[in-house]
Request: fold
Amino acid sequence: MADKTKKPKKSATADVKSDVALPKLGFRGMLRWAWRQLTSMRTALFLLLLLAVAAVPGSLFPQRPTSAAAVTKYISDHPGTGPVLDWFKLFDVFSSPWFSAIYLLLFISLIGCVIPRAIAHYKAIKSKPPRTPRRLSRLPQYGTLEIPAEQGVTPAQAIKDAAAALKARGYRVDIRDVDGDRPSVGAERGFLKEVGNLIFHTALIGVLVSIAIGGLFGYTGQRILVEGDTFVNTLVGYDSFSPGTNFSSTQLSPYSITLDKFTVKFDRESKAHYGQPLDFNAQLTTKDSPTDPAKTQTLKVNDPVSIGGTNVYLVGNGYAPVVTVKDGTGKVAFQGPVVAVPSDGAYTSLLVIKVPDAKPSQLGFVGFFLPTALQDDKGVAYASDPDPFNPQLDLNSYYGDLGLDGGAPKNVYTLDTSKLTPLNNRDLKAGGIVLAPGGSYTLPDGKGSISFDGIKRYVGLDIHHDPGQASALIFGVAALLGLVGSLFLSRRRAWVRTGVHPDGRTMVEYGLLARGEDYRLAQESTNIRKLLAKTWALPGESVAKRGAKAQDKDQPATTATKDQ
Amino acid sequence: MPDTNQTLAEYSVLFVLLAGIVYVVAFVAFAWDLIQNSRTTATVQAASTAAAQQRVAVGAAGASDVVYAAGYDPEDRAERPSTAHIAAAGTADDEMKYSGVRRQAARVAVVLTGLAAALHVCAVVMRGLAAGRVPWGNMYEFCTTGGAVVAVVFLIVLTRRDLRFLGTFVIGLVLVMITAASVAFWTPAGHLVPALQSYWLIIHVSIAVMSASLFTLTFAMSVLQLLQSRRERILAAGTKDSLPFMRMMPSALSLENLAYRINAIGFVGWTLTLMFGSIWAEKAWGRFWGWDTKEVWTFVIWVVYAGYLHARATRGWTGTRAAWLSIVGYLCVVFNFTIVNIYFSGLHSYAGVGS
Ligand code: HEM
Reply:
């Protein structure tokens, strides 16, 4: 920062260095030079623009944290470029070393910039308004007033009056030479502008730190909950869980959530949007701990439930057909709801049933659940509506080793059929399994039977704990307020000087100078003029006349200020 | 949830069409004004040029002395080259206040713009009433509502400053927006998917659209600023004026200054957009920032305009370079509202299923 003021200093140090020319100092000098480079306004600008550019690939390529599957697919689709892009961390842009380096440098630069500025500004607030320029008439805003001799206001009195008036207007004032020929007052206001700027930049650091705290101590987890089921907030209760770096499982508060009922409303009025979802509504029974009383709560999209220091979000939903599978021995080998994953707006839902307990051989089913099944011309069933008007299960079945006994965890939503023997599908004589609620089907070769007992719905819950969230919000608001102050307040300096005309009138001249961008300086000048005129009860007519004259004079000077 | 009123929705479409027709006429009137004005101003050019240069010279000398005499410490302010303003009668002056000169075509154009904007606002309101919600839930509505906001913001700024020279540009842009809406993004009125059913939609999106319309104005100014400063350089070198129609535009410096003021407001608006967006994201998706495509671009835009504000305070980066940043920022805004909405998948895809 401060290219202009630092410049002379820089050349001064350079001179000293060439005089002394010690290698030891050379290294420290180098460091100081590097630090000054890093904290210069130009570097800040460069790093800001670099940050903007560096963020762009994060939108062009799929990112692991949000869409890991898309990344895997991208890499397998582009075997040539994929791994190279991966090496450059283009699928993890926002946690990549280069992105981190840019924003860390930016924030180091920011700290290096804010601290000296804060000190300088503190001194500026403590010090007196700057000395009165010799020729006020050269200031961008300038005007004169005269107090008739009859009023008997001495220059000293006039300057005290002017100081009081400026003070009332929020200026800090300093009177000089009260008893001299030409007493003057220096005034300054608008220190909050720089304060706002400092708050803004400091708060940005606060936001970053809050986000970091969230990443260290927070956690997120997912859980699929079928109607009637209960989630207990323990590690085993989650389907997937990603803790922050410093997370410990003792942080989990022992609450529980039961999904009593889940209702969905689809648009039935509009032709264009027929079947589009309108409302998702989950009725929950929650307990803060096993001993606490139960409460009923409603969970909706955009409207999370807060419980035990976490927020619970509704992020997905679907159907869970209830099935019973009997094995070859006639025993019930599986019974319960099976979560089916919707793949389109009509809830064409994929489902997999694994029955490792079936005897003599394990059984597996893969297929679709269709809430409202229709048949196309080729006789293939498809879902035509998201509501369960004509529910149907379409399954293929397999038997053999499901491969669940080897330790590696398997995705419950996929079935590796490569080692299994098909029992039912469209190409076999037995055909596929088609079931309506209440229906049942006997598998070929005495392998057992499957029945479709009913339908439940399920919800996908996201559970988040982010301890940095509140402070991020507080710093965000502070940044905003600081920004507004910094951009829209103005730092101004004003001077008034008085003197006696030989004929006894007291002459008053005033001038204003803005620091930085200030397009309302002329307005301020007019206001001060009015204020002074009122102080000495000067007739309005003369104010108007002089005002117009001052305005004429102001014109070129205003243009010139902008040139600074 | 109230029914969708299809009759009203059809009237809305009709009003968009009517507004479009009136905009076209206003556009022609603004263009006519540009041509006419450039001709009349050519005649008074010579005299005022001399006067203006003299004026600036006096002012500049006065100020630079005072600056140091007063102990003014220009700290973070960059040193600005003083640009000779080639003023001419009938043009917007440095402050862009209205001069006394009557510009018949421009007046007609403003009145027509007012009429078109009124029709346009009616169309937007009808659309909202027809759907029983705020009219910004899909691309069609972003474009029609956004266009109306641009027109209204332009008219509001016109009451305070003479920016009629921007007319062709702004109206042209509004026409592009409503054409794109009607041709490429047409969507019948309907309800919102659950992901968009939130009062944050009203707050977040309306502020985003308003900031974007401010950025639209500054984009236009920055483009003109670049043209003007090129022309000023050419004129200063004593070469023949290559862009005579620019004669009626304010000086590059005053374009830059006004653009800066408006960009400052736009930046605060965009900061709010970003903050409200993250609060909404927290409510809807459980995290306030997740680098979703739309979030990435909102961030990029914010950083570019922060860079612009910095540039205005960095030596060697004011003037032309700052103008380029303002332009790049706006291109990012356009990209965010169009390409990102249409082609990039992400949580913000508005047509999707709510699961
Ligand atoms: C995290 C990165 C940064 C962002 C997002 C940022 C943003 C901004 C914005 C929006 C402004 C204009 C509003 C205002 O005046 O308060 C500004 C002004 C300023 N920034 Fe930064 N800044 C960043 C880093 C820095 C750094 C590293 C420095 C120091 C080298 C710096 C120095 C300044 C100064 C001196 C001003 C005042 C300019 C003026 O007088 O108009 N900023 N910054």
User: Anything to note?
Assistant: Confidence is low (pLDDT under 50) at residues 50-92, 349-355 of chain B. The first helix of chain B runs from residue 6 to 69. Residues 1-191 of chain B form one domain. Residues A 1, 39, 41, 44, 48, 106, 109-110, 113, 197, 200-201, 204, 483, 486-487, 516; B 76, 306, 309-310, 313 surround protoporphyrin IX containing FE (CB under 6 Å).
